[in-house]
Amino acid sequence: MTTALTTDSSARLPGLIRRLTGDEKHAPSAHSTIDVLQVLYDRVLRVTPDTVDDPERDRFLLSKGHGPAAYYAVLAAHGFIPDTWLDDLAGPASRLGHHPDRLLVPGVEIGSGSLGHGFGLAVGTALGLRAQGLTKPRVYLLLGDAELDEGSNHEAIAYAGATGLDSLTAVVVDNASASHGWAGGIASRFTVNGWTADTVDGRDHEALYAALTGHRPRQPHLVVARIGSN
Amino acid sequence: MTDMRTAFIDTTTALLDEDPRTALVLADISASQFAPVGHRHPDRVLNVGIREQLMIGVAGGLALTGLRPIAHSYATFLVDRAYEQIKLDLDHQGVGAVLVSIGASYDGSAEGRTHQSPGDVALFDSLGDGWTVRVPGHPDEVAPLLRTAATTDDPIYLRLSEQSNAEAYPDAARLRVLRRGGTDAPLVVAVGPMLDPTVAATEGMDVTVAYTHTPRPFDTRGLRALVDTDVVLVEPYLAGTSSALVSRALADVPHRLLALGVGQTDLRRYGNPADHARWHGLDADGLRRSISAFLGSVGG
């Protein structure tokens, strides 16, 4: 069985992200997903480069495929991909594009980019694991608050809640980028459908860890990770 | 006689009982018919409600975990509506599923355009060459095609219809000659339920009639072996859907092609499927007129 990989990638991430972006000015915090990804891969997900095909592994699905620099950097920090891959982002021979492709990048569970596709795949993955008696793995899904505009998400939110799909944790990184906002809050869209929800400071690693491991039985779990503007 | 939809329900029920890898995803359509098997296998019979995008996304997720998903609805909801999910949640992820539709081009004649999908096969053509497309012409062709599909991980589309031929030809994945014309006789290819009207339309004509229930991959080798100069395609979906394939297959051979099928125009008329067949020129009389005119138009 795989066990939680508790490491600390924070020392390596700034350098790895700079290799991707060539940007010396901005700190890693310019990337809204970096803290969630770091906590997930450092402390929560039971998956390593050796277990990327293990049926018992936890799944992380990046639905919001945009701006994957932080994702690639975290994958490199944990040894899923060589650091050298970061030097030629979206080049003609690169395996790393502006949206990730699961067939090109080890450890990437889904190819994403068109918004609103990860949720259905995550629900299907959770159902497929359950149908095969694989009760240990959890499915983590990362979305953006603007991505929630896509109606396909709401098909999945309602269904996962109604059927109590409790092996699923959705994380919405909320940097208030949805054009029309979410009056009444993002969490309410989920909780009204039977989800549990924690809304936390998306930069606070302890709060994120508690929320990311705060799922309860018989209900899918939502983490809203709020990111203030830099 | 059992219809195609019932054959699909019976065979899928058996597959769910026999093979723990099989999973079924529904969006309410046919849910009541699958309720009994759903009680036996609640984790593998999944009705997501009227949510077709989710249905295909879930199928993709199930396939990612190693199951063999079957997804089912009316063609227009399964394919037209969920097209980007088919493209991205299945194709782009590198996984397959068995998609089984009902309704075809105008089974839902009285329901109107909203329930009709003459363009579904053309949409699969836009996805590249990975998809196998089965268009059975008889209910007895459904079970063997579905069973074969369930044993693979390939992307397979099974297009069922209420229109069907008098006889089944389960082994017609390649072009199967049902009537042999004289030397140099024109070749008429009928797909799925178009066989019987095509045979009736060409009664007394010196043509070779070949049948297939599998337009993708199209049997281009069989086509080249059978063709002299004139080819007539008779397809139960958009006219010309297979024209590009035939042209490519015969690119180095002088040939003439008549592609018959469903017209592109929304007729905005109800009536029954026979009415629509007639309006699209796909009944025996209409086919005969088109084929005769084509064959008579050059020295014939």
UniProtKB/TrEMBL annotation, chain A:
<feature type="domain" description="Transketolase N-terminal">
    <location>
        <begin position="26"/>
        <end position="223"/>
    </location>
</feature>
<comment type="similarity">
    <text>Belongs to the transketolase family.</text>
</comment>
<keyword id="KW-0786">Thiamine pyrophosphate</keyword>
<dbReference type="InterPro" id="IPR029061">
    <property type="entry name" value="THDP-binding"/>
</dbReference>
<dbReference type="Pfam" id="PF00456">
    <property type="entry name" value="Transketolase_N"/>
</dbReference>
<dbReference type="InterPro" id="IPR005474">
    <property type="entry name" value="Transketolase_N"/>
</dbReference>
<protein>
    <submittedName>
        <fullName>Transketolase</fullName>
    </submittedName>
</protein>
